Amino acid sequence: MIQVGKWQIDIVSGGRFLHDGGVLFGIVPKSIWQTVQPADSQNLVPLAMNCVLARSDSHCVLIDTGHGSKLSPLDRKSHGLLPGWPLLDELAGLGVTPQQVDHVVLSHLHWDHSGGATSKVNGSIQSTFPSAQYVVNRQEWADATSGQVERSGGYMPADFLPLDESGQLRLVDHLEEVVPGIQVLQTGGHTLGHQAVLVESKGNGLIYLGDIGPTSHHIRKLWCTSYDLDLIRTREVKKQLFDFAAQNSYRVVWNHDVDVPVSRIAVHPKREYLVEI
Question: Which CATH architecture has domain 2-276?
């Protein structure tokens, strides 16, 4: 548990999965990235889905939802998912029910971030958190629902369309406040509407990077994923967020890092940045 002023922060697991290392590290040669993230015989590396639960006296906010429970057995096997739904299990372990979550902020709408936003109940898809307002970037929603393969091919509509149908969807823009003390930052880069999330209170803060910085190994400015739609933008915004976090001694959340889910960042004169546990 981390205290950020009035906010109690818990890192909760949305699941773990296996992913191709070449996709995770993009143009970085395997001879380099495997020294920090070894792959198995199929070139797969283990990744986490680190979500954030932020609680105050007034609000219970969940940032990202992991893989959820809707994937078919074949899809679960292909992604190396373990049985069960760890997000709901971990929330229950913290004494939090789905009904108590009042806001769900989604960094973007890829399955490993928004899959748990909805659930299949008695054959129908409905929101997992019935009392929550779901916060999605306006550009992200437009791209995900565009019907254009170039923009919407990476999304699974069952993860998010029911949120609009239930009236729980809230579309936001850059620097919009979700609740007092929690703000979204449209970063672009990974997707055009990708957003990071800033939690601040009493001079302290935490930044949920989403897939702008999927693991602590991506602290290197040029290390980005092959999925990034705008590679230059990812590199630019990484520097902005890392500089901001370092200058203010804010923690950052590495949402796919199995070993280092959260850290601080320090500026280094020769190596750009360092991860400070």
Answer: 4-Layer Sandwich (3.60)
Note the helical H segments in 109-160: 111-114, 138-144, 149-152
Token pair belonging to 251:
């923690």
Per-residue pLDDT of 155-197, as tens digits, reads 999 999 999 999 999 999 999 999 999 999 999 999 999 999 9
- C-alpha 129/C-alpha 149 separation (Å) is 29
The letter for the amino acid at 94 is L
pLDDT of residue 271: 74
- Measured over the CA atoms of residue 106, residue 111, residue 116 and residue 122, the dihedral's sign is positive
Q: Where do we find the tokens 């399955």? A: 111
Core vs surface per residue 61-91: b (16+ CB within 10 A) or e = bbbbbbbbbbbeeeebeebbbeeebbbbebb
